Amino acid sequence: MWKWLHSLAKPETMYRLCGRFIPWTAIAGTVLLLGGWTWGFGFAPADYQQGDSFRIIYIHVPAAIWSMGIYGSMAIAAFIGLVWQMKSADMVASAMAPVGAVFTFIALATGSAWGKPMWGTWWVWDARLTSELVLLFLYLGVIALYNAFEDRRLAGRAAGILVLVGVVNLPIIHFSVEWWNTLHQGSTNMQQSIDPSMRAPLRLAIFGYLFFFITLTLMRMRNLILSHDRQKPWVESLVTKGAR
To answer: What subcellular locations does the record give (predicted)?
Structure first.
């Protein structure tokens, strides 16, 4: 099994596999997001308390969910890179980091926009908001470390350690609404708390974000592989074929 995994981790093999999956994940993400947003923004009924302002959940909630999900995935990749010294694992974590940072920023920006009509202010140093902001700083720190060293192995090791240390922030984000008095609403059980006519498009949007995350990560992986192996014969051959 390990031999099979190591064969898949070869840069040339990973580059070609990423290229095969990108069109399918991109199509899936586009269809799911357009379906979820069209349904949610155009046809879902208004909330009995929040009116139409609740519709921001179709942007905010998927971004917030995957801001943590991406970081958790990065932590798994970082752990593999540190323990088994797999360069491809460090590359995967590096590819995920900017995507996770963007999702976290979207979650913070839309959360502030949602908080204005609900709380009367754009920002408060609320436990949930503050821990989500810390997550954004963690993403930026990881990106900075990956680009701070010319030695790719050293960069991967330093960034991987920061990723693993930062994992402690994930349960803080998730349970912050239970551990502290907070303006942010408590954790929502979608199955029980959200009407099916609102819940179905939200689920479509959540999966749409997931496939867009996968697509963007695969695209970044291909770029990182080409940059890392730019002097290898297989890359030179690829460039030569593309120029013809």
So the answer is: Cell inner membrane; Membrane
